[in-house]
């Protein structure tokens, strides 16, 4: 076994044990998708959970990418690829399966789009939306071999196409958007990070149940903000309300009015 293959095997084992991953398809996807295919050439700026800043890898050997580390996309803006264990945990929690239609809002450079592509298989679809035109173009190029992935440069709060089994939001917002809820198929699942201006908050899992929805806070999170969202003190208060309400018990509601749940 090569050093790279061994590093990739350790990477999958680490995530599987740490997050108690239940989905064999997810573990197979993590083992199969080369992380280096979705980045510029190294060396790379990486950051572990415990660190307070990026460090430069000693060289461009992809073996450095097969650890539970963030990799900088734009270090100046603190925009990175996302922590592999965290997003693997969310994908597992959402029970993404074969033939599902998955929408990603904020796909970045497309690594997790490729992972999802492998999970849903040729009869499933991944609709990957990215609001940054340069990132969207790079993601589309990286994802060209993945025939069941469509990359769209757009705003995931305005248009996400057909109804979805799973919607995953990869940026922080003050509240779930009505479009996301309306676009869920019966028993569809949404992962939405709800954050304040300091980028801190909680990820909520929202499930469509009958005519309504059920929300629960599943993980504290710090994440890059969605473009133009979460910029006022009112946004902070709305995000804080959702986090507190969903942390106490599953929150049941019918829709969203002015950012808060309603029974209308």
UniProtKB/TrEMBL annotation:
Its EC number is 2.1.1.77. Keywords: Cytoplasm, Methyltransferase, S-adenosyl-L-methionine, Transferase. One of its GO terms (molecular function) is protein-L-isoaspartate (D-aspartate) O-methyltransferase activity. It comes from the Bacteria. The keyword RNA-binding does not apply. It is an enzyme of class 2 (transferase). CDD domains: AdoMet_MTases (cd02440). GO terms for cellular component: cytoplasm. Pfam families: PCMT (PF01135). GO terms for biological process: methylation. Its main location: cytoplasm. Belongs to the methyltransferase superfamily. L-isoaspartyl/D-aspartyl protein methyltransferase family. This is Protein-L-isoaspartate O-methyltransferase. It comes from Bradyrhizobium barranii subsp. apii.
């Amino acid at each position: 076994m090569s050093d790279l293959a061994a590093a990739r095997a350790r990477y999958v084992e680490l995530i599987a044990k740490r997050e108690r991953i239940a989905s064999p398809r997810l573990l197979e996807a993590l083992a199969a998708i080369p992380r280096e295919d979705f980045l510029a050439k190294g060396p790379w700026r990486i950051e572990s959970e415990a660190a307070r800043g990026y460090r430069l890898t000693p060289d461009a050997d992809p073996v450095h990418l097969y650890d539970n580390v963030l990799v900088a996309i734009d270090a100046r803006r603190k925009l990175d690829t996302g922590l592999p264990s965290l997003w693997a945990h969310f994908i597992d929690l959402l029970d993404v399966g074969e033939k599902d239609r998955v929408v990603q809002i904020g796909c970045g450079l497309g690594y997790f789009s490729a992972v999802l592509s492998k999970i849903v298989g040729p009869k499933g679809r991944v609709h990957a939306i990215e609001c940054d035109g340069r990132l969207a173009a790079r993601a589309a190029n990286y994802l060209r071999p993945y025939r069941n992935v469509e990359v769209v440069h757009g705003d995931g709060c305005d248009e996400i196409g057909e109804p979805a089994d799973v919607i995953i939001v990869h940026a922080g917002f003050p509240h779930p958007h009505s479009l996301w809820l309306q676009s869920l198929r019966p028993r569809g699942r949404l992962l939405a990070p709800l954050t304040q201006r300091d980028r801190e908050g909680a990820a909520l899992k929202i499930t469509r149940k009958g005519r309504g929805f059920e929300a629960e806070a599943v993980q504290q999170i710090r994440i890059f903000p969605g473009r133009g969202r979460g910029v006022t003190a009112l946004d902070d208060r709305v995000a804080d309300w959702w986090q507190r309400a969903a942390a106490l018990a599953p929150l049941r509601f019918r829709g969203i009015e002015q950012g808060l749940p309603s029974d209308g």
